[in-house]
Amino acid sequence: MTAPRFQGDPPTHFLSPLLDDAGVPHLFTTRSFPGVTAFRDPFPPLGPTAQPLLAEHGLGAEPAAFLKQVHGAQVLRATGGGCAGKADVLMTDRPGLPIAVFSADCVPLLIYDPDGRRLAVVHAGWRGTAQSAARAAVLALVEAGGRPEGFLRGGQAGDRAARRSLSGAVGRLGQVGRCGQMDAGPLGGQRRSAAKRGNPQRQG
Questions:
Q1: Please, is 161 exposed, middle or buried when counting C-beta atoms within 10 Å of its C-beta (0-12, 13-18, 19+)?
Q2: 99 near 66, Cβ under 8 Å?
Q3: Alpha-carbon distance 33 to 156, whole Å?
Q4: Which CATH number does 13-189 carry?
Q5: CA pair distance 17, 94, nearest whole angstrom
């Protein structure tokens, strides 16, 4: 298992080395990340105080797409910011659009298809795991044309002591230029080539 890259003191978030090395703008929040709240329609779960850290990682240029999570395995596709509906897996192929899931003692996952340029986020609690939420995300990426042997994933273990302090995962697809380089957003500079892959059995 590849060790996560924690940032902040106390740690507010961390990065998956596999996703970071592939040039995917993303972060996994901890209970110390500012501005994360429980979803209450019509208010988004990422408040104004979250924006500086999101922008630092190329995730603040536009509002994130998120879900009203229901502890299941349904997959929805995001094409714009805001609440995409009731589900626990959100997928996008739109560069620049952040997508997000949130959890207390559940597991947030990010799965990236570097060939098809698609990204999925998963909210996987015990009920979602029993219904194979992560598998549903992989199958949705495969049905869209992806090759699972090339997928990269990052995840965060649940924290039962933090049931009332939400954590989560936020990621987006970067823009690809003529040289195949993926950007990390307006404040993130250039990342490494998106063609670099890891073993899909590893996670970070």
A1: exposed
A2: yes
A3: 14
A4: 3.60.140.10
A5: 23
